[in-house]
Amino acid sequence: MTTEYNIAPQRRGFVVNPPERDEVTNEYISEPEVYENTPFAQEEPEETFTDVDEDALAPEDREPISELELGEISIEIHDTTVIPDETLATEIAAYSFGDTPSDITVQFLAHKVYQGELTAEEAFSEALDSGINPDYLAASYRRLKEAFPTNN
User: Fold this and answer.
1) CA distance 52 to 20
2) In the sheet that 4-6 helps form, which strands lie side by side, from edge to edge?
3) What is the DSSP annotation of 64-80?
4) 3-state secondary structure (DSSP) of residue 132
5) Collapsing DSSP states into helix, strand and coil, what is residue 25?
6) Which of 23, 102, 120, 142 is the most exposed place for a label (fewest CB within 10 A)?
7) Number of C-alpha atoms within 13 angstroms, CB side, residue 109?
8) pTM to 2 decimals?
9) Domain coordinates in residue numbering, the chain
């Protein structure tokens, strides 16, 4: 008697004993036996994924930023001409943004840029030199950019 293993897609394996055959006539003597209640045959519930707003997640739960995305942010910052604006700087400083180190750093540096104390390139360099994870800085930058869209 031989044992056959059948694997169905999207399902864990289960045990099937093939039907017995008469050696002379090659006719089936019995029906195949299927054991579905084995630990290997129990189906696991499918995982469902839902779209999650990245900004609603804690920084450590966000998707890691790619080097390409960091490069795009760098190009965006270096290609932007920032005109100092005391009113915008005050609004950025007064905005209730967040209390994570990346939020505070990005908010502080943006305030300094629009006050005219730093260039955008210097602020970007200081942010990366701060020792804070670039993923967190990029997420904070995106959130601040959404809160204060500018034409500069």
Assistant:
1) 54
2) 4-6, 14-17, 33-35
3) PPPHHHHHHHHHHHHHP
4) coil
5) coil
6) 23
7) 24
8) 0.55
9) 1-48, 54-147
